[in-house]
Design brief:
Rossmann fold, 3 domains, 8-stranded antiparallel β-sheet, 7-stranded antiparallel β-sheet, 20 helices
């Protein structure tokens, strides 16, 4: 959730830190700060609110140092305030921290007994006290960090510097991500590569309980016991322009419009001569860094062999990714007849799941760092299941933990409310379902050819949907007067209804619920009157007539109907306040098309109401703690 940037080099640390933190604003935060060594002492400046407040405070400040750390904080322990903002400074130790220290009360009690003066309400400051105590004994910052690691329980990524060693940063983690950026006579550390991509394209990702020691000229990696680790850097070919708005008013709108290309990029590696051939899944390759060099034929043979053993599939995810997983259940069960269970990651491990032999656990996470999903994949591995990750960020924690790997290939997604990561996930789930259907010999070559051709047509159909944007904007204008919203659909449209409701809640802060349309008589019908907007998803599929019947029921109770249907449909137009046409597609691909109007309506309504679309209140892009 929070953002971390650290720098050692010949540039002005203030400029590097502020630039990096701006790239991390998408995560959500309530305060910000930086600490830079200046004339042998730490200059610490913090501010409540957005980075603009911090920038105003440092405008007239002079910094002549070459090392510093910065942070954007999302409040967990202690209210949002300047005194609770990071960095924290204790006896020459300055520290920034993402995550939660679960045993902070025990640590605080012990520190108070020792006479420590605690200046904030945070768990983070306590870690600075522990390190300060140790470094007074060891006179070695790395050794001090190694000595306190076992005292910390929870999820944390931490960067620390010491006034008495102005040429060193120490960083360590257990849970939330940390990445080191490598430069020439300069080095960086951050919670996300997006903070550093303007400065370098070479990165080292830290694994849990690893410690990294940075100087201007060298980066050294160690285990928690101090054993040196060799790891080659990864070259990431993102350009800085990929994370800019490129002329759009908001990152989210840019990302909505990027979806046709993103969807094409998601399927491109896995389609060969109009056949599905999943590429670089890597079940037989233990080193994730070598996935791009493996033998594609051997990899594909291994994937088919592993999939042929699968008798049950569990799809584990959170939020938008969970709704994508529910669509995946429809796709895989229909095309392969393999039973699929879907679980919210935060519930999965606490329900004591029964995972039979020959099960596959598929985890979906845009960031690849979602704490609950990471815990779920670890539990699945303990129980002997084959695990497969579907992420947007290569070398993220979940990606590294899984046996096999698939990627959304959506490119950077800055807006907190997910858009292109969702649609690219649906593409990969279609490819996965087709693969299982082939392996189980339920899809013929002719059927596969048809499915692939339909899939290849989706980007152009998405372009058509986007060309209707002004109609979706008009529909959004009509929505602002309603007290509540019911999104409804059947079959694969049901999860899309839930995703549509989620987008409205996330962006416009309005009460909205997604329902299976057949459940209307079991409660939601009582809510419907002339002040209730009903968004009905009615593609011309096997559920069309039943869904129209549900729509008629809602209209009869006074509900104000906004309908999305296949092409021009006079019947739906006649019973709708607003009818929005969507290009015709096969049932398995309709979700990719129908979610785009949901995104656009939520976006426009939030803009009309004057809300921050890219950074909705109380939300963060990457949820790295439970």
């Amino acid at each position: 959730m929070c953002g971390i940037v650290g720098y050692l080099g010949n540039l002005n640390p203030k400029d590097v830190i502020i630039s990096g933190l701006k790239k991390l604003e998408y995560r959500g935060y309530d305060s910000a700060g930086l600490a830079i060594l200046h004339n042998g002492e730490t200059k610490l400046i913090r501010a409540l609110g957005k980075l603009k407040s911090l920038e105003e405070k440092i405008t007239s400040e002079q910094f002549n140092g070459h090392i510093g750390i910065g942070h954007t904080r999302w409040a967990t322990h202690g209210v949002p305030s300047e005194r609770n903002a990071h960095p924290h400074k204790v006896r020459g130790i300055s520290l920034v921290h993402n995550g939660i220290i679960e045993n902070y009360l025990d640590i605080k009690e012990e520190l108070v007994k020792q006479g420590a003066k605690i200046n904030s309400d945070t768990d983070s400051e306590l870690v600075a006290h522990l390190i300060a105590n140790e470094v007074e004994i060891t006179k070695d910052l790395k050794k001090a960090v190694e000595n306190i690691l076992d005292k910390l329980k929870g999820a944390f990524s931490i960067v620390v510097m010491w006034e008495k060693n102005p040429n060193e940063l120490i960083a360590f983690k257990d849970g939330p991500p940390l990445v080191v950026g490598l430069g020439k006579s300069e080095n960086f550390v951050a919670s996300d590569v997006q903070a550093l991509i303007s400065y370098t394209n070479q990165f080292i990702y830290l694994n849990d309980r690893e410690v990294v020691q940075l100087s201007q000229e060298k980066v050294r990696l160690f285990s928690s016991q101090g054993v040196a680790i060799e790891r080659k850097p990864i070259v990431l070919n993102w350009s800085p322009e990929l994370v800019e708005k490129q002329g759009f008013s908001h990152f989210m709108l840019k990302e909505i419009y990027e979806q046709p290309r993103a969807v094409a990029m998601a399927m491109e590696p896995h389609i060969l001569n109009h056949r599905v051939v999943l590429k670089n899944v890597g079940f037989h390759e233990k080193d994730l860094h070598h996935l791009d060099q493996i033998d594609p034929l051997k990899d594909w043979e291994t994937t088919q062999k592993e999939f042929s053993k699968i008798e049950r599939i569990f799809i584990i995810a959170c939020g938008t990714s969970f709704y994508a997983g529910q669509i995946g259940k429809y796709l895989i069960e229909n095309l392969s007849q393999i039973p699929v269970e879907t679980d919210i990651a935060s519930e999965f491990r606490y329900r004591q799941p029964i995972i039979p032999k020959n099960s596959l656990v598929l985890t979906i996470s845009q960031s690849g760092e979602t704490a609950d999903t990471l815990a779920a994949i670890r539990l699945a591995k303990e129980k002997g299941a084959l695990t497969l990750s579907l992420c947007n960020v290569k070398n993220s924690s979940i990606d590294r933990e899984a046996h096999g790997h698939l990627y959304m290939n959506a490119g950077p997604e800055i807006g907190v409310a997910s858009t292109k990561a969702f649609t690219t996930t649906l593409v990969v789930l279609n490819l996965l379902a087709i693969t299982f259907g082939k392996v189980k010999k339920l899809i013929s070559e002719e059927q596969e050819l048809t499915l692939v051709q339909e899939l290849l047509s989706i980007p152009s159909k998405m372009e058509v949907v986007l060309s209707y944007d002004k109609y979706f904007q008009t529909a959004a204008e009509n929505l602002k007067k309603f007290k509540g919203f019911l999104f409804m659909g059947r079959g694969v449209s049901y999860p899309i209804a839930m995703e549509g409701a989620l987008k409205l809640k996330e962006l416009a802060y309005l009460h909205a619920e997604g329902y299976a349309a057949g459940e209307m008589k079991h409660g939601p019908l009582a809510l419907i009157d002339e002040r209730m907007a009903i968004v009905m998803i009615v593609p011309h599929d096997a559920n069309f007539e039943k869904t129209v019947s549900n729509l008629e029921e809602a209209k009869a109770r006074g509900g104000q109907i906004i309908t999305l249907g296949s092409g021009e449909n006079e019947r739906l137009k006649s019973i709708s306040l607003t009818y929005l046409p969507v290009p015709k597609a096969e049932w398995n691909l309709n979700p990719i098309l129908y979610v785009v109007p949901m995104q656009l309506m939520a976006f426009h309504l939030a803009c009309i109401l004057g809300y921050d679309v890219d950074q909705p209140r109380n939300l963060a892009k990457s949820v790295t703690v439970e």
